[in-house]
Specification:
The structure holds 2 protein chains of 2 kinds.
Chain A: H1 24-35, H2 42-49, H3 56-71, E1 76-85, E2 108-109, H4 112-124, E3 129-134, H5 141-157, E4 161-165, H6 171-179, E5 184-186, H7 196-199, H8 205-217, E6 221-223, E7 226-228, H9 234-247, E8 251-256, H10 273-286, E9 291-294, H11 298-301, H12 303-311, E10 317-319, H13 331-340
Parallel strand pairs in A: 1-3, 1-10, 3-4, 4-5, 5-6, 7-8, 8-9, 9-10
Antiparallel strand pairs in A: 1-2
Chain B: H1 40-48, E1 65-69, E2 72-77, E3 81-83
Chain lengths: 352, 85
């Protein structure tokens, strides 16, 4: 690796891609990922995550080219909503909705008319995806009935793809959701297998993988995400990207820890913005064809400038507006940015 | 109002925009709006409330039932009603 002679001064973003400036892993990635469409391996991803700051513009530029070549220029816009908030029996250490921590988040159920209203508002932003989320270990009959009812009411009112995130599923529940027209199911790995026991003790990595695999086998699109900045090492971040790549999810939402009061991770510092951008580049280079979505925590970790850099560095989807218990940037801020970057919003393609 | 331990506290809050902010909407501790300088703690709470809805009723400190939607939120106190942005 040759260290660049003229160190970037902050506003010369193209310095790192001037001729003669070479980072071997990026040269390799250009051939392997951009040209051949083969994602980087775990050890290669570690090299990307360890790139110096001076190499970051070149890494993001390459990831952007990979995204354009393998995914196109469209950006997929999604809204998410919590149908059942709080009181979860699981102990995911990052989550304010666990009933096991002293979090200020109270248990709340959303009524269906409000849910339909939110779906309409989401569709009006140009979003093609609406994900209904419940803070549960897995759905019970009451929740499944609510979901069925919600899907029918939303379909009557508005054209939008419906996704669900309801925790771990049984085979029967997977089949029911597929039959009801849920076209995508979210179930995150969250972190690397080797770090998972530090973050969750009430269920296993294997159980998460089981649900993911059943979802895929049933013909639903798998949305399987990451939450980085929880104290994992760079090696574990690479491990996570490789484990996600092996699952071949349709979509990977990338979250950055927003430490929540009362949770075991409440005192974890917010991750460095440049590390977050390196991770974006690495995830894109691990998964050239996946929908790589900006999800929670980007406002804190990346800010406005970083949000823009990520969209020019491998990200090709956003969660618009608010999250489940926290607020996002105003929807208009993201939508205006997409206009400015000349990135069209992906149009609705109903699979039914 | 039941801010008995801080009887001189101003009723103009720093955190929720409510006119009866005895308590910080973010952390639930007594609000320090009014005559005294805002503490660093609550200044951070105020910043955080730009990116998350309040969880505690500013009038009585009860935890509120908060529903976030893609384009809005509401926070309901069983005693003091519904707060919206």
């Amino acid at each position: 690796m040759t260290i660049q002679a003229n160190v970037a001064t902050g506003d010369k973003a193209n310095d790192a891609i001037i001729p003669g400036t070479k980072y071997e892993i990026l040269e390799t990635a250009r051939r392997q990922v951009l040209e051949d469409g083969i994602g980087l391996t775990e050890s290669q991803l570690v090299e990307v995550l360890e790139l110096p700051d001076e190499a970051l513009p070149a890494a993001l530029q390459l990831s952007h080219e990979v995204r354009l070549r393998h995914c196109g220029e469209d950006v997929e816009v999604e809204g998410i909503i919590s149908i059942k908030t709080g009181g979860c029996p699981e102990d995911c250490h990052f989550c304010s909705q666990s009933g096991l921590f002293d979090s200020p988040v109270r248990g709340v159920w959303l009524d269906i008319p409000e849910l339909v209203k939110a779906a309409k508002e989401t569709a009006a932003t140009g979003a093609t995806e609406f994900c209904i989320v419940a803070a549960v270990r897995g759905p019970d009959i009451k929740l499944m009935n609510q979901i069925k009812f919600a899907i029918d009411r939303i379909n009557e009112a508005v054209d939008i793809n419906i996704a669900c995130s309801l925790g771990m599923l049984t085979q029967r529940q997977v089949d029911q959701l597929a039959e009801w027209g849920v076209h995508r199911y979210n179930h995150n790995l969250e972190t690397a297998r080797s770090y998972f026991p530090e973050v969750v003790t009430t269920h296993s990595y294997e159980e998460r993988l089981d649900t993911c695999n059943m979802v895929k086998a049933a013909g639903m699109e798998l949305c399987c995400g990451a939450l980085i900045g929880m104290g994992e090492s760079l090696e574990q971040r690479a491990e996570l990207a490789a484990q996600l790549a092996a699952l071949e999810p349709h979509e990977v939402p990338l979250n950055f820890l927003n430490p929540r009061p009362g949770t075991p991770l409440e005192n974890q510092g917010i991750m460095d913005g440049k590390d977050a951008l390196r991770a974006i580049a690495a995830f894109r280079l691990a998964m050239p064809r996946t929908v790589l979505r900006y999800a929670g925590g980007r406002e804190l970790t990346l800010g406005d400038l970083g949000t823009r850099e990520g969209l020019l560095g491998g990200i090709n989807a956003v969660i618009v507006g608010n999250y489940l218990t926290t607020l996002g940037r105003p929807a208009t801020a993201d939508l205006n940015l997409l206009v400015e970057l000349n990135m069209p919003i992906k149009e609705l393609q109903k699979t039914l | 109002m039941n801010g008995v331990s801080f009887p001189n506290r101003s009723t103009t809050g720093v955190s929720t925009g409510s006119t009866t902010a005895e308590f910080c909407g973010h952390c639930g501790e007594p609000s320090d709006g009014g005559a005294r300088p805002t503490s660093d703690v609550h200044r951070r709470c105020g910043e955080r409330l730009a990116m998350e809805p309040p969880r505690y009723c500013a009038a009585c400190r009860r935890r509120m039932k908060v529903q976030v939607t893609p384009l809005g939120w509401s926070a309901e106190c069983s005693r003091h009603g519904v707060l919206v942005p």
